[in-house]
Automatic annotation (TrEMBL), chain A:
Coiled coil (UniProt feature): none
Annotated protein name in UniProt: LUD domain-containing protein
Xref: SUPFAM superfamilies: NagB/RpiA/CoA transferase-like
Pfam family, one: LUD_dom
InterPro entries per the UniProt record, alphabetical: FTHF_cligase-like_sf, LUD_dom, NagB/RpiA_transferase-like
From TrEMBL, chain B:
The entry's keywords: 4Fe-4S, Electron transport, Iron, Iron-sulfur, Metal-binding, Repeat, Transport
Keyword Membrane: no
Classification via InterPro entries: 4Fe4S_Fe-S-bd, 4Fe4S_Fe_S_CS, FTHF_cligase-like_sf, Helical_ferredxn, LUD_dom, LutB/LldF, NagB/RpiA_transferase-like
Gene Ontology MF term list: 4 iron, 4 sulfur cluster binding; metal ion binding
Pfam family name, one: Fer4_8
Signal peptide: none
Gene3D superfamilies with a match to the protein in the record: Alpha-helical ferredoxin, NagB/RpiA/CoA transferase-like
Protein's name in the database: Iron-sulfur cluster-binding protein
Domain 4Fe-4S ferredoxin-type: 302-332
Presence of keyword Transport: yes
A GO BP entry: lactate metabolic process
Amino acid sequence: MPSNSDTARGRILGRIRAATGEAASHNFAAVMSSCPSRERALAAIDDPVGEFRERALGNGIELFDLPALPGLCADLPTRLADAIKLARDGRLAHLDWSAFQLTEDTTDASCGVVLADGGIAETGTLLFTNRSVASGLLFLVDHLVAVLPLSRLVCRQEDLWKAGHCNASAVHLVSGPSRTADVEQTIQIGAHGPRRLLVYLLDDRAQPLEMDR
Amino acid sequence: MSAPQTFIARAGGALDDSQLQSALAKARSGFVDKRATAIAAEPDFETMRDQAREVRQRSLANLATCLEQFEQQVNAAGGQVHWAESTDDLRRIVIDICEQAGAKTVTKGKSMVGEEAALNEALEQAGLTPWETDLGEYIIQLAHEPPSHIVAPALHKTRDQVAELFRDAHALGERDLGEVRALVDEARAVIRERFLSADVGITGANLLIAETGTAALVTNEGNGDLTARLPRTHIITTSFDRVVPTWEDASKIFRVLARSATGQPITAYTSFFSGPRAEGEQDGPESFHVVLLDNHRTEILDSEFREMLHCIRCGACMNHCPVYQSVGGHTYDSVYPGPMGAVLSPLLRGYAQDDELPNASSFCGRCEEVCPVRIPLPGLMRKLREREMVQEKPPWLTRRMLAAFGWLAQRPVLYRYLTGAGTRVLATLGRRRGALRSLPLASAWTAHRDLPAPQGASFQLRWARAQRKAEGERGDA
C-alpha cells in the first residue's frame, strides 16, 4: 500500500484536509447528519396537478388527459403524422398497437412511447430511470410520448429522491423538448433530442397503476 | 495570428469589431431579460439562493469526507475515480483510458474542465478524433477558437459566421442557411451519426453527489445524454469542488442554476449517472470513469478566496457585467471570462498578465447582486488587487497617481474644493448638449460614449444642505 503522499489522490486529499481541518476517519453519514440545513423551507405546493400543468405548458410540453391507459393507442394517431415508426416501452407492450408500424430499434424509430417513473409538479418534469426505459429511446426519437400516472406525481424533486428513485445507473429528468439557444440566443426546439414532447396525464389516483419493474 | 498581450489592447480590438458587437448586443438583452422574468415568477427565489449557498458551504467544509464517499460509491457501482493534480495529469489520464478502450473517435459534451485542460488538442495529438456535440462547442471547434462564455460558448458568433463555418465544414452542396432553424437542423443531422459511432463519450459534470457516487449533468440539447449513454466508455472530466453531499442538496443547486443561467425554472434535461450499465438495465456504457482535477483548487480552498469554489458556473455574473457586455469573453484570454473568471483565472494559472483581470471591473456590484450563491465577487477582486499591489509593484505612474489621490482624499476641505471646481468646469463645458463628446486625455473612452455633464452640486454638498435644512425644520417645530 503506497503512503498517502505517493499518489495524486493522497496528496490532493491531504491538502484538502489541511484546509478544512477534517479528521482522516470521518464517517460520511455521521458527518452529514451532524450538520442539517438551517435555511427556511420553500412554500408548500397546494395543487400539484395544477402546478404541473402550468409548468409543463410553460416548458413547451403538449399536455393531454387520458381517462384510461388503453385509450392511448386510439388517441395517439390523432396527435402524430402518418407513417411514423414507433418504439415503445416494454411496460406498455400489452396495449393494442396493431394500428402502428413498430420497431425495436431506437435509432430507426421516429416516435417513442414511454411510461414515466415519476413526475415533479414544481417544474413540470418527468422522471425516467434506465431500469425501465432505455436512455436511447428518450433521446434518439423525433417525438417522445410519455404517460404520467398521476399517482406518481410529487410536489418537489426531493420527494422523488425520498421515494428511492436514485438507484439506477442513469436517472433522467425530462422537462421539455430538446432545445438550443447557441446561435444568436434564438431558442430553437429540436437540437439533438426530441422535437416534440407529448405528455398524457393518466388519472390513476383511485386505483394506482402497478409499478412493474 | 496571436491575440494582443494586454487586456486593454484586446478590449480595444473587441470594441472596434462590429460583428462581435452585434453578437454581444443580442446576448445582452437575451440573458438579462430572461433571468429577470424567471425570478419575478418565483417568489421563493431568495430562499432558494440561501439554501444553495448553504449547500456549497457545507460541501466545501466537509470536502474530503464527501470525496471519499463519492469514490467509494463509484467503485461499488463498478466505475473508477482518477485524481489529476494538474491539467497535464488530466490529459494523460483521459488519453490512457481512450487507448485502453482501443478508441479512435470521441464524442464530447461541454466540459469547462476539458476546456481548462485544452483536452481536444491533446486528444488530436494522441491520434484520436474528438467531436464536440454541444452546438456552441461544435461551432467554436470548427472555428478553432476557445469559448467566449461558460454557458453559451459561441456567443460571439453571428448566424452568418456560423453559416460560413458550416459551408466550409460540411460538403452538402447548395442550401439555404439563412435561418437559425436550418443551422440547427444541419448540425443535428451531422452530429447524429457521430453519437451512434463514437467509441468513447466525454462529458463534464455540473455536480457530483457524494452519497451515491453520482455525476449530474444539465443540458438543453440532450447531447450530454447521448454522449454519456451510447458509447461503450463514458469519461467525466470535472473538478473535485463540484461535489455536494446528497441528492436533496443537488436539487437545491438546480433550483437556482437554470434560473440564473438561461432564465428557465429547469433545463430540458437534468441527468444523473452512477456507474456503468448495471444488470437488468436497458442500456448504458460498459465502463465509467470520473477524472477529478485539482489544478490549484486545493490552494484556493486554503485561502481567503475559498468562496470562489462555491461557483456553480451559471454565467449570470458575466451576463450582467458592463465590462463583459462591452468587450466579450475572448478579451479575458481565459476559458473563464467575466467577473468569475477575473477572480478564478489568476488563481488557477497565475500568469503575469492575469493581474489585469481583477482590474477590468468598475465594481458596480451587479455580479454579486445576481450571483445565485452570493459570491462577493467585487470583494474577491479587491483582494486580488491588494495582493497585486504587494507582490507586483504597479508601474511608476500608477503608483504616483494613487499616492496623489491618497494624499488628496485625506484632506477633505481641499478635496471638496477641487472636485467642486472640476464639476463646475465640466457642467459649463457640457451645458449646451448635456453631455461631453470628447475630453482631453480620454479620447479612447469618449470614442465609444459621451460623458454626461454634471447636474447641479456634488453629493456631499447636497447632503450637507439637506442636513442643514432638516435641522432648520426641527428647530422651527
